[in-house]
Specification:
Bound molecules: calcium ion
Shape: rod-shaped
Number of domains: 3
Strand content: 25-35%
Largest sheet: 8 strands, mixed
Helix content: 10-25%
Number of strands: 31
Length: 456
């Protein structure tokens, strides 16, 4: 019987091709070098490796055919024929039982006489010294996060491997499981608050792990530098729209959603991160996460209706706003008025909010309220550019100084009187300077001013 493999058969060539095919899964490595001369009296004996069962199959067929021919010859030696047929059939049976095992194990040749390194794949593998010289294994690096199943004749560091000898590895690995959660929502404002997703993995952290994803939701992300005038398609910046690497030594990584402060009316948008499948990991139950990007975007419109100074008080003015034909759909509105129970300084039931961006009825940017919740001038756009809407607007506001507003003395008795002897302060809606809030006063019986209505 052949005790050691001296050459590799045709079936082995096929298996070696498999072994050299790049694998998506993780691998370890086996390093070998020429063996040093064993010390006198030393040197261990390596167990002979049985001929691989794959090689038994052609041998069995050959013997069986030969046996058959003997039997067919009239003058043939029947005993020889029967013996050969029986041996061939027996080997064939053994071979067929062992073939699945043989195919399951990858066969890897250690073919470099000067030494080298080969991959250790997952599952079973055998390594055969085909270098023509005695070898020794100098290093075994298992595939990360894998457990050895301790096969017979396992390859170990320091093991001598005489010419033709083989050893084996068998590793079982568990793929990491990746999940995603929302860490924080984003807020668009003068000083935007970034949002974040956290992607986490289970298991070994020796190596970095590339994780793929898609970003959806109503908000639109960009990489790189945003344009100067941010468009509706530039809601946030992110390092990559498709992937992130969990670094070596870390079990999680954050994907930061850097909210961009635009002048686009987009009061509430969403970002959804969905994990994408990979051969390098499995995806856990938390496979997607949803983030909101809230913004302080609000609208201001000029009423289609026009009124004298008796608005029914502040509450009546608010009601006129919410019932007005020019009110955009959605939202609750309050009248921008100074009165006995509404004003900017001190803030009493004040309708503007510091840092909030305001947009007109067609969602064009008017201005951002400053830190004391009033507007600096000039505005980006007047409150109204429509000639069909009232130009004069009741306000009851004084511009005390730049950036500081107060309730004017003229408020038509806090907007409850149309007495011709009383007056109300007003502004012009088609101007972008301080006159948009305060020009002079009108008698309270004048009936054609409108109102500024602010979304709350
Ligand atoms: Ca957008
Ligand atoms: Ca936006
Ligand atoms: Ca916005």
């Amino acid at each position: 019987m052949i005790k050691r493999m001296s050459t590799l058969g045709p079936g082995s060539t096929f298996l070696l091709l498999l072994a050299s095919t790049p694998s998506l899964a993780q691998t370890g490595s086996l390093t070998y070098r020429p063996a040093v001369e064993p010390a006198a009296g030393g040197g261990s004996t390596v167990q002979a490796v049985p001929i691989p069962s794959l090689l038994l199959l052609p041998l069995a067929i050959g013997l069986a055919v030969l046996g058959g021919r003997y039997l067919r010859r009239q003058h043939g030696k029947k005993l020889h024929g029967i013996l050969l047929l029986a041996i061939g059939t027996g080997l064939g049976a053994i071979s067929s039982m062992q073939v699945p095992t043989a195919i399951a194990a990858l066969m890897i040749a250690l073919s470099q006489p000067g030494g080298g390194t080969v991959d250790i794949p997952l599952g079973e593998a055998s390594y055969t010294n085909t270098a023509g010289v005695a070898l020794a294994i100098t290093d075994i690096t298992p595939p990360p996060a894998c457990t050895s199943n301790s096969p017979a004749n396992e390859c170990v560091t320091g093991m001598p491997l005489p010419e033709g000898a083989s050893c084996h590895t068998d590793y079982t690995c568990t793929l990491p499981e990746v999940t995603v959660i929302k860490q924080a929502d984003g807020v668009e404002s003068g000083s935007p608050t970034p949002g974040a997703f956290t992607l986490a993995r289970t298991g070994d952290t020796t190596n970095p792990l590339d994780v793929s994803f898609t970003l959806g939701g109503s908000a639109t992300g960009i990489t790189g530098t945003p344009t100067a005038d941010l468009t509706d398609a530039e809601d946030y910046a992110v390092d990559s729209l498709t992937a992130v690497t969990i670094p070596a030594g870390a079990s999680s990584v954050d994907v930061t959603i850097t909210v961009l402060d635009d002048q686009v009316y987009d009061p509430s948008e969403t970002v959804e991160l969905t994990l994408t499948a990979s051969a390098a990991y499995t995806i856990g139950a938390e496979s997607a996460a949803l983030m909101s990007i809230s913004s302080e975007d609000k609208r201001i419109f000029v009423t289609a209706g026009s009124f004298n100074g008796d608005l029914g008080g502040i509450a009546g003015a608010d009601q006129k706003c919410n019932e007005d034909a020019n009110k955009p759909s959605g939202g609750v509105y309050a009248a921008l008025l100074g009165g006995a129970d509404r004003g900017p300084d001190p803030a009493v039931d004040w309708v503007l909010s510091a840092g909030t961006s305001y947009f007109n009825a067609t969602e064009d940017f008017i201005a951002r309220a400053n830190t004391v919740a009033v507007f600096d001038f000039p505005l980006n756009l007047p409150f109204s550019t429509s000639s069909s809407l009232p130009i004069e607007i009741w306000t009851g506001i004084d511009i005390v100084s730049a950036g500081r507003w107060a309730v004017a003395p003229e408020t038509c008795s806090s907007w409850s009187s149309s007495d011709t002897a009383l007056e109300g302060a007003f502004g012009w809606s088609d101007l972008d300077d301080a006159f948009s809030i305060r020009v002079i006063e009108l008698s309270c019986n004048v009936f054609d001013p409108g109102l500024y209505c602010v979304e709350q």
